[in-house]
Amino acid sequence: MKIEVCPLYDCCINEKQMEHCGLCDEFPCETFTELRDPSLSEEEAKEALLARQNELIRRKEIGTEKWLEEKEA
Predict the structure, then answer these.
(1) In this structure, how many other beta carbons lie within 10 angstroms of the beta carbon of residue 7?
(2) Which of 31, 36, 37, 68 has its CA 20 to 30 A from that of 45?
(3) How many whole angstroms separate alpha carbon 73 and alpha carbon 32?
């Protein structure tokens, strides 16, 4: 039985061995921008994409540890 892997996880973790996509020189790439929740409308998908991008940019700027502390607060 073949188990499918999230294309973002596969690229970031398995192929490039990075902690998260925000650290990649190609961020945001086509894989990142094209992957979306099919239950969302176009507008909701655009908002979700922007939110994910901003979170990863922030995480890159301050580091994962501080970023997680912000999330807990």
Answers:
(1) 12
(2) 68
(3) 27
